[in-house]
Inverse folding.
């Protein structure tokens, strides 16, 4: 990643996944506060063209998975027993679930770009996002980086006692962005 010409910097992105048609990379923490950066992909002596990448401090989105039994896209969530939440294992009202996301913004005790997030002390977001489940406000018990992962946000959320049953929409807002 290269900063716009006024700030002059060049930083490596940390790779998470690479395939023939996709590259997942952690945007360096050092680019926080910038609106754009330039990115190129290099393999050995070969580099791609420069691409302008729009940046924002907040751009919340949940990670999803395709549930094999139904083919539906569901939020990547674990229950209190660390079991995947889905149609065969519904989230329980009044119980906590772990939701996985990106784009939740700045954190305290920020690890170095590309480094594993420590478990102690926990790394929390500076702004606590709001979450609704089935249109009902949910209590966010924790919002921060998932321990032992790189750049992955985790939210521990209490399922509202009055949440509707069945598959429900989950909405997240952080830093004024929904």
């Amino acid at each position: 990643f290269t900063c716009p010409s006024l700030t002059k910097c060049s930083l490596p992105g940390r790779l998470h996944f690479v395939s023939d048609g996709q590259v997942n990379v952690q945007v360096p923490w050092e680019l926080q506060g910038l609106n754009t950066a330039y990115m190129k992909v290099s393999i050995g002596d070969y580099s791609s063209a420069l691409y302008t990448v729009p940046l924002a401090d907040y751009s919340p989105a949940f990670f999803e998975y395709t549930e094999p039994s139904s083919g539906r896209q569901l939020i990547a969530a674990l229950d209190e027993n660390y079991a995947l939440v889905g149609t065969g294992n519904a989230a329980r009202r009044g119980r906590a679930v772990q939701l996985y996301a990106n784009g939740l913004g700045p954190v305290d005790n920020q690890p170095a770009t590309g480094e594993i997030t420590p478990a102690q002390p926990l790394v929390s977001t500076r702004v606590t996002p709001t979450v609704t489940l089935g249109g009902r406000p949910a209590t966010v018990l924790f919002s921060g980086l998932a321990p032992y992962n790189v750049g992955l946000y985790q939210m521990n959320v209490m399922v509202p006692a009055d949440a509707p049953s069945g598959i429900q929409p989950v909405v997240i807002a952080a830093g004024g962005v929904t």
Remarks:
- The chain has a mean pLDDT of 92.
- The chain has no helices and 15 strands.
